[in-house]
Amino acid sequence: IESLEKQISKAFNNDIFKSVDFNPKINLSEDEKNYYIHADLPGMNKDQVKMELSDDDRVLTISGERETIIDNSNEGANANKEALKEETKKEAKKENNKKYSRIECSYGKFSRSFTLPENANLENIQAKMDNGVLEVTINKKE
């Protein structure tokens, strides 16, 4: 297996075992009073997710980054990272003294944008995160 991993890594310039863009699954729904956006963000917490609303074109953007479990030791050159990120990486490295033979989960940065309907109340948008699922509730104007 180790020989095969080396051959594959050489063929793909080591990129095959690095993180790829994370594209979370989204459910859009509505009822009489609200629009809903549900985003599956496994392993993430609310501090890792950012929401921005562009008032001029009524676009809601949800973005963030799901940290990789792969130890890329050459990433240590960036000394000006936040202390919290550094602590998280140290904990991940302790946990990641493993040799992975298969990684099916996606990691990396993501950004999803949604154009909100004309009857969406931009003044009252609520969001909550529970068990890796982000739920955004947008009230409808009466």
TrEMBL record:
Gene3D superfamilies, A to Z: 2.60.40.790
Region of interest called Disordered, as start-end residue ranges on this chain: 71-98
Key words, A-Z: Stress response
Composition bias, Basic and acidic residues: 82-98
InterPro entries per record: A-crystallin/Hsp20_dom, HSP20-like_chaperone, Small_HSP
Residue ranges occupied by any SHSP domain in the UniProt entry: 17-142
Protein family membership: Belongs to the small heat shock protein (HSP20) family.
UniProt name for this protein: HSP20-like chaperone
Top-level taxonomy: Eukaryota, Fungi, Fungi incertae sedis, Chytridiomycota, Chytridiomycota incertae sedis
